[in-house]
Write a structure and sequence with these properties.
Elements (H helix, E strand, L loop, with lengths): L20 E8 L13 E3 L6 E4 L8 E2 L7 E9 L6 E12 L3 H11 L3 E7 L4 E4 L6 E8 L9 E10 L4 E3 L1 H7 L4
Protein name: Tail tube protein
């Protein structure tokens, strides 16, 4: 089979494949470290694109972001420029932080200072990560007080960046060692 041969794919549908983001963690790009024996902040398992190691600075972990139910999304839009052959995947992650408080504001401010990497657990149970190349940055935040009882109150946040390929999956066995809490 040649390098450019199309791989087989069996339809995967049914229970366990619902859409949406279940959990989200963030880390400042500056808190990542080169993996020993590599020139990158991550390594992949031999023969796959699945990440099996992410380098962290001493004491650093991906920090859990408390999400409101069904208020987070992850989207990658991959395009290939036919004239140059360049491939680019624009990534957008949106989520909500409840309440307008000093603590919430400090969290939003911390996102806006520098590039971040985001670890995402999809509702399917799969993990993906974006921003390990230093390109994921805070894009915008909307403060919203709502207009009536029961309306959302808090911040609507958007983080954007790009990858030079499709977003990488992460080996689930790695998660407990890189996050502050499951």
């Amino acid at each position: 089979m040649g390098l450019n041969s199309v791989k087989a794919y069996t339809k995967q549908a049914g229970k366990g494949y619902s859409g949406g983001v279940q959990k989200l963690w963030a880390i400042a790009y500056s808190d990542l470290a080169t993996v020993t024996g590599s020139t990158e902040v991550y390594t992949t398992a031999s023969g796959t694109t699945q990440i099996n190691a992410i380098g962290l600075a001493s004491g650093a972990t991906f920090t859990s972001i408390g999400l409101l139910r069904e208020n987070a999304s992850f989207k990658g839009t991959a395009k290939r420029d036919a004239s140059t052959g360049a491939f680019d995947n624009s990534i957008e992650v949106g989520f909500s932080i409840s309440n307008i408080t000093d603590t919430a504001k400090q969290f939003v401010d911390s996102l806006s200072y520098a590039p971040v990497a985001l670890l995402i657990k999809l509702r399917s149970g799969n993990y993906v990560v974006t921003g390990l190349n230093g390109t994921m940055e805070f894009s915008e935040a909307t403060e919203d007080s709502g207009t009536k009882n029961g309306d959302f109150v808090g911040y609507l946040i958007k983080v954007m960046g790009f990858e030079d390929g499709f977003t990488k999956t992460v080996d689930p066995a790695l998660i407990a060692s890189i996050v502050d809490k499951l």
